[in-house]
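Below sits our specimen:

——
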Amino acid sequence: MGEIKLKPCPFCGREARIKPYGYADGYVIEHVASYEPDSALCPIANDEGVGIGLLYYETEEEAAEAWNNRAGQEGDTK
């Protein structure tokens, strides 16, 4: 399987990462304001070590699919 790529944040354009969730088997999306200058204003950035919304996913692929989904994109059923 190839490298999993995440789209930039839809609010600030900065990077997000998939991290293993420390309290259960699974993964969280981490989008940390302190990793990049001027991203502290992003409405969905979180503190280091805290997954966004505390949603965790069973696989890295599932996490990437959830993060990369954008409302209104072609093929979106939401």
About this structure: The chain has a mean pLDDT of 77. Strands lie at 17-20, 27-30.
